[in-house]
Amino acid sequence: MTTIAVTGHMDLAESTVPLVQEELRDLLRDHQGDLVGVTCLARGSDTLFAEAVVEAGGRLVVILPSRDYRQAKVKPDHAPAFDRLAAAAEVVTMPYDTANRAAYEAANGELLKRADRLVAVWDGAPPSGKGGGTADTVEQARSAGVPVDVIWPRDARRGS
């Protein structure tokens, strides 16, 4: 069994979504039926990864940063996918009442603790200095010796 976690941008341009979907499917194809995907199930990259894991016959583990994450952070347009994928997953909620930077950092730490590999849907931009973002998670994984597969297709871009 291979456990692959994901980190990635939430704000993918609409034209980038199918490019990322294709690369995720290609990456996970080798693990069909032998896969656990770990995600915080944020909009964008996390959700695309979760859908690809399910499509590959894998099992999902969703790490929620806080008890209020669903109510406070999941926007109405993302809620149907979030609810559908979370219902099919093992859900682990971090011990924070409120979704904040500390909760996100703890969730990313839990993600990496469980991972054999990390997939990063990442444009390569350095950390913002706020902590808990994609670049920070990639740095943490590399420091911990967790192999990182970066996905950023040619012509990919972030939206607004």
TrEMBL record:
Protein name, UniProt field: DNA recombination-mediator protein A
Alphabetical list of Gene3D superfamilies matching this protein: 3.40.50.450
Organism: Streptomyces platensis
Ranges where the record places region Disordered: 126-146
InterPro entries reported in the protein's UniProt record: YspA (IPR010697)
Lineage: Bacteria, Bacillati, Actinomycetota, Actinomycetes, Kitasatosporales
